[in-house]
Design goal:
767 residues; 4 domains; binds adenosine-5'-triphosphate; 20 strands; Rossmann fold; 31 helices; 10% strand
Length: 767
């Protein structure tokens, strides 16, 4: 685990970390962008730029408190940049604060610089045929070890001042002493883990973490008295934190005209110099590099509003007038051995596969980039060019979706697809349930309509009873539409179509692992209907266990998912329907009495069709119209004999059966009229012999009147089609949706000829 972590749930995939990471050490996953530790150089850019604070530095505050509580003495070393970060208090007050936290001694890290002076001087004076790169900035060391390994030999084989002072303290005070380095530098946390220097410093804390410790311990630094430092007072080492500081400290005379010594800082300058060095374009003797803008004072570990220039100023001031009291312990004053200061570096380069031109092309094409002009190089993905992004996709660091123009295009396409699907679903729904009007003017239908109007707007539970096909579901829909919940969902469940256990999980949902196959949490239909209405059809068929659960919902408005322990509040109106005799169920024990009474608050009983025959004609005509649309035929009427037979039929399947029979007849009829022959045979059998032609004179008179009337309607219609098509019989038949041969038969029957209509204007358009 590296020092920079991602708080996954905070990451919003804005790619700002990808964009700002100088070494592209960020991998974008499906839901968040994470740091690839093998590539990370600890510069902290991602931490700084993440507006969501999804990138954080691994906290060591808990660990330090445990260390301070331990047996071993713990020594604090303040990094050379501290005067730029704790400028509003005196150094001695900072020492007091640290001692209050429990540190036994406090040192200035700049003394570590001075420990290195001789080694540096020796190396500088030793001729080398390659430029030397200073190694005190851990980010620079990581950059070269992990990304420019061919420059490894250029790294000066010397430890950093932090390691030098760490070893010095341990040597003088005792090997068991714990050394904690306090700094603005996140990469220091990386450095102390590196095997060649792992013995020197036990922990690195950022100034930000330190500030947190002071806050947690209610240590108010400005109110504290001053306490002297315990280490050795440094001199020019105090300039080390700013650009050029190391040259001052090591006595190197670098000036503008001397190309032998170069010093620079900041990501861009550093990367440019490294590339120049790698390409051999410049050959100085020594290069001092610091990754952060302004040098160590630009480190990311503590935010404050000062610019690198004002921080530099604070370092200068402190150097000129330190005002830092010192009470150096005797064991640091005595001459003693200088700690080991040499260091080796290793190749940590993590090679990523390089894609072929063909692979890059394929990836570009998969994000709609077929020609060069398609490569917008907009940078929204975090990579400067589309090709760099394609390479990252190949290497598994990035995803196609990161491309903004591509994602927008996909969204647009998805939007169109969804809109089409929505429209289709709407149409299907309309066909299935579109006609919610309750047809009928007979006394019992009017009574049902009246009850719907009364109960609709109330929250009352409704029980709808009646035979199958009498319109129980239609009534439930009408109640929902009349309620204040009409803009919320109406969820219909047929309780007989699912097994008991499935029905339970369907209604109340389930928790992951509740049963085999429950691979994740699933919401139930009660939750889906929250705020709206649930219609439980065939409620008489549910098991006693479900009856008990249902009672609980009705009583306390809570459901419990299968396998769950926490109840969930729901606000759902219940409408139930049954064609069973629930009273009998109560008596026989298969239906709970308490549930029966909870359901039976307001009951609507649907009359069977045989008891509302006055409405049959109306129903027939409405269903004829609907069937016309569904089967795409123009149907103008129904033969009176067919109606007469229907009036004699008992309709066991009720209105649903009537609807189906009309639709079937609409399919079967050869012309625009439904006749007795188009109905199932049982209807012909219901007609008395005389009805087929030899009926009573009264009947006969009525029937022939009606037949005449219908024939006249049919003839007029045919004439209109012919007028519209200028006498073109084939076209007229097509417009009428009638087979040509049938149309011709009709012409003969009505003694009409296409030629009569040539050149005639239509009087009325056909319906
Ligand atoms: N009064 C009516 N007016 C118009 N259509 C009706 C009427 N009654 C029923 N229907 C239609 O008849 C069909 C059956 O109605 P519905 O499904 O509501 O009956 P049901 O009593 O719930 O049947 P089941 O008990 O079998 O579930 C539906 O297509 C419905 O639109």
């Amino acid at each position: 685990m590296g020092p920079i972590q991602t708080v996954e749930e905070r990451c919003r995939k804005c790619y700002s970390c990808v964009r700002n990471c100088p070494v592209k050490a960020i991998k974008v996953k499906e839901n968040w962008a994470e740091v690839i530790h093998e590539r990370c150089i600890g510069c902290g850019k991602c931490v700084k730029v993440c507006a969501q604070q999804a990138k954080i530095v691994t906290e060591s505050t808990g660990k330090i408190l445990r260390m301070l509580d331990g047996e071993q003495p713990v020594v604090a070393v303040l990094g050379c940049s501290f005067p730029a970060f704790f400028h509003d208090i005196r150094p001695g007050q900072l020492v007091s604060g640290l001692k209050r936290l429990g540190f036994e001694e406090v040192h200035e890290g700049s003394f570590g610089v001075e420990l290195l002076v001789d080694t540096y001087r020796r190396l500088i004076d030793t001729p080398a045929d390659f430029p030397r790169i200073t190694t005190h900035c851990p980010t620079i060391v990581d950059l070269i070890e992990r990304h420019y390994p061919h420059l490894l030999k250029n790294l000066m084989p010397v430890v950093s001042p932090m390691v030098a002072i760490g070893r010095f303290i341990k040597e003088r005070k005792g090997a068991k002493t714990k050394v904690v380095y306090l700094s603005s530098c996140i990469a220091g946390k990386f450095e102390i883990e590196a095997e060649p220097v792992a013995d020197a410093v036990d922990m690195v804390l950022t100034y930000q973490e330190l500030a947190k410790l002071f806050r947690a311990g209610s240590i108010d630094l400005p109110r504290l008295p001053e306490t002297p430092f315990d280490g050795v007072p440094p001199e020019r080492g105090r300039l080390f934190a700013v650009t050029g500081g190391p040259f001052q400290a090591f006595g190197i005379e670098a000036d503008f005209f001397n190309p032998d010594f170069l010093a620079t800082e900041g990501q861009e300058n550093v990367l440019e110099i490294i590339r120049d060095l790698a390409a051999g374009r410049i050959t100085p003797r020594m290069v001092d590099l610091r990754f952060c803008t302004g040098g160590c004072v630009g480190g990311p570990g503590k935010s404050n509003r000062l610019t690198p220039f004002s921080k530099r100023n604070l370092i200068h001031k402190y150097y000129q007038n330190p005002q830092a009291p010192y009470a150096t312990a005797a064991y640091y004053q005595a001459p003693g051995p200088i700690p080991r200061l040499d260091r080796r570096f290793s190749n940590k380069y993590h090679r990523l596969d390089t894609p072929s031109g063909q692979s890059i092309r394929q990836i570009l094409q998969s994000t709609n980039k077929f020609v060069e002009q398609d490569e917008l190089n907009c940078g929204a993905c975090g990579y400067d060019t589309c090709r760099e992004h394609a390479v990252a996709v190949y290497q598994g660091l990035a995803e196609n979706d990161m491309c903004l123009p591509y994602s927008l295009k996909r969204l647009e396409e998805d939007h169109v697809k969804l809109a089409q699907k929505y429209e289709l679903a709407q149409r299907a729904l309309q066909q299935e349930y579109g006609d919610t009007a309750i047809i009928g003017r007979d006394g019992s239908t009017l009574e049902v309509l009246n009850l719907i109007t009364q109960v609709g707007p109330t929250p009352t539970t409704v029980l709808i009873r009646g035979e199958s096909g009498t319109g129980k579901e239609l009534t439930a829909r009408a109640i929902h539409q009349k309620s204040q919940r009409s803009d919320k969902p109406l969820v219909s469940v047929n309780c007989t179509t699912l097994t008991d256990s499935l029905l339970e999980s369907e209604l109340f949902g389930h928790k992951k692992g509740a049963f085999t196959g429950a691979v994740g949490d699933k919401k139930g239909l009660f939750e889906a209907a929250n705020g709206g209405t649930i219609f439980l059809d065939e409620i008489g068929d549910i098991t006693p266990k479900l009856q008990a659960e249902l009672l609980r919902v009705l009583d306390i408005g809570e459901i419990k998912p299968v396998g769950g322990t926490t109840p969930i509040k729901v606000d759902v109106r219940l409408i139930a329907a049954t064609n069973k005799n629930l009273e009998e169920g109560v008596k026989e024990g298969w239906f709970r009495e308490d549930l029966f009474y909870r359901l039976n608050v307001f009951t609507i009983t649907m009359p069977p069709l045989r008891n509302r025959m006055e409405s049959l004609r109306e129903l027939v005509h409405v269903f004829l119209d609907r069937a016309s649309k569904r089967v795409n035929k123009t149907l103008v009427g129904i033969d009176e004999r067919a109606i007469a037979s229907m009036l004699r039929y008992p309709w066991p399947g009720n209105i649903r059966e009537l609807q189906n029979i009309i639709e079937r007849a609409a399919v079967l009829t050869q012309d625009s009229i439904i006749r007795l022959e188009n109905l199932p045979v049982v209807f012909s059998q219901l007609m008395p012999e005389s009805a087929d032609g030899t009926s009573t004179p009264a009947d006969n008179g009525f029937r022939s009147q009606r037949e005449k009337h219908l024939n006249q309607v049919e003839k007029n219609l045919i004439k209109r089609y012919l007028e519209e098509t200028g006498g073109n019989v084939s076209l007229a038949a097509r417009k009428a949706g009638i087979p040509r041969r049938t149309f011709y038969r009709m012409l003969t029957r009505y003694d009409l000829q296409g030629a009569e209509f040539r050149g005639k204007k239509p009087t009325h358009p056909t319906p």
